[in-house]
UniProtKB/TrEMBL annotation:
EC number: 7.1.1.9
Cofactor(s) required, per the database record: Cu cation
Segments traversing the membrane: 50-69, 90-115
GO molecular function, one term: cytochrome-c oxidase activity
Reactions catalysed according to its record: 4 Fe(II)-[cytochrome c] + O2 + 8 H(+)(in) = 4 Fe(III)-[cytochrome c] + 2 H2O + 4 H(+)(out)
Domain of life: Bacteria
The organism of origin for this protein: Paenibacillus piri
Domain Cytochrome c: 246-342
Name used for this protein in its record: Cytochrome c oxidase subunit 2
Length: 342
């Protein structure tokens, strides 16, 4: 019994740990560190509303403390009822007008920025048009004017408006890149619009912000901002078929026999699953596992048993217990081929 009674001693420790852990993680996944004009406008509204709330709290506490001290009963005081101000027109006007003024200070810029940030830039010739489709549990990005499509990595040019059309292929998700702008829900059968803009070349973390299933917490993606020259080079590279080396031809055949029905490897990316064109240039496997020459084991684990990495994923397992069993050598050949998709 004493053990449970002493647990309260750990409450300050847990509070301190929570405070310290709030500072962990990438600075590109914080709405308090904007890296684009949309995020800066939204941070201004957050600061404005927080400032008004803090001001109201301070004023209330100052009045409360003043009344507590000024009208406290002192030793020797008689039980005298102070002068009553109930029904004072002056006070009624003051505490009616002040909240109205505060609401106007908050409402006017909020409405103004809401209208501004909901502008449709799809027809803007200077903007890059991207159609975003959310799936359980991955992201598809189509660039209709450029004739390309990719998955998991949204590549954009810096200092340009990115006009987004956002929808869902299955359940409700939510597109969110904290450093570049607020979230937007994705709904089946509906298309929502928003736009983003990045100040500089960097990699920004994005997440699904709506509970969507077993691997909701793993439904991550990246927004990679590049200079105009680098972005154009990326587009040109994605449109060219990958040069497959001779030692990866066996893996290419394994891919055609087992994976091509779901995954495309062309610029347009027409397929049931993520487009794997340019897969070897991506930083992550399935959005959650690091990839690269030293991380082939991660790719192996994903191919053999994807549900152990991302529960609820629709990709079948190709391991010994999978419906589509591949021999170990076939898996190695497939990995070699995927690593050649530059």
């Amino acid at each position: 019994m004493n053990r449970w009674q002493n647990l309260w001693r750990f409450i300050p420790l847990f509070g301190l740990m929570m405070l310290l852990l709030t500072g962990c993680g990438s600075d590109t996944i914080s709405a308090l560190r904007p890296r684009g004009p949309v995020a800066r406008d939204q941070l201004f509204l957050m600061k404005l509303s927080l400032g008004i709330m803090v001001l109201v709290v301070l004023v209330v506490f100052v009045i409360y403390i003043y009344v507590l001290v000024r009208f406290r009963k002192k030793k020797g005081d008689k039980d005298i009822v102070p002068k009553q101000v109930e029904g004072s027109h002056t006070l009624e006007i003051i505490w009616t007008v002040i909240p109205i003024i505060l609401l106007l200070i908050l409402a006017v810029p909020t409405v103004s920025y809401t209208v501004k940030l909901s502008e449709n830039h799809i027809e803007n010739k200077d903007a890059v048009h991207v159609k975003v489709t959310a799936h359980q549990f991955w992201w598809q990005f189509d660039y209709p004017e450029l004739g390309i499509a990719t998955a998991q990595d949204l590549v954009i040019p810096t200092n340009k408006k990115i006009a987004l059309e956002i929808t869902s292929a299955d359940v409700v998700h939510s597109f969110w890149v904290p450093s570049l702008g607020g979230k937007q829900d994705t709904n089946v059968g509906m298309t929502n619009i928003m736009y983003l803009e990045a100040d500089d070349a960097a990699v920004f973390l994005g997440k699904c912000a709506e509970l969507c299933g077993a691997s909701h917490a793993l439904m991550d993606f990246k927004v990679i901002s590049k200079s105009d020259a680098d972005f154009n080079a990326w587009v040109d590279k994605l449109k060219k078929p990958a040069a497959i080396p001779a030692d990866a031809k066996a893996g290419e055949q394994v891919f055609k026999d087992n994976c091509l029905s779901c995954h495309a490897v062309n610029a347009q990316g027409l397929g049931f699953g993520p487009n794997l064109n340019g897969f070897a240039s991506r930083e992550m496997i399935a959005g959650v596992l690091p990839r690269g020459k030293n991380n082939d084991q991660n790719l192996h684990d994903w191919i053999v048993d994807p549900n152990s990495v991302k529960p609820g994923t629709k990709m079948p397992a190709f391991g010994p217990t999978g419906a589509k069993h591949l021999e170990e050598q076939q898996v190695k050949d497939l990995i070699k081929y995927l690593n050649a998709l530059q």
